[in-house]
Amino acid sequence: MSPGLDCQREMITILYFASIKEKLGFAKEAIELPPGVSNVNDLTVLLRARGDVWAEALRDGPKLKVAVNHSMVTSNASIANGDEIAFFPPVTGG
User: Fold this and answer.
1) Please, what are the domains in the chain?
2) In 10 A of CB 58, how many CB atoms?
C-alpha cells in the first residue's frame, strides 16, 4: 500500500440488547462487513454460525427485532459499511 493512503477498514457496528446482550456477555462490537453479507438475514446467519452461545442468543431468527441506523427493519433490509445494526429479542409478555 502506498504511503499516505488511508488504511482504515470499513466496519459495521452491531449492538445487542436485553437477553441477547446477557447471553453474549457484551453489548457492542464492530466487525468488517464480509463479502456476500448484504442484508440483515445474511448478517444473522453469519453471527449464528459462530456457534454455541451465538446460535442460542440469535435463535429466534425471524422473530428477532432488528434496527438499521435507528430504524426498525425486516430481515431482507440492506446493510452496508458504516451502518449500525441493533438486535433485540422478541417482545414477550401479556
Assistant:
1) 11-88 (3.10.20.30)
2) 21
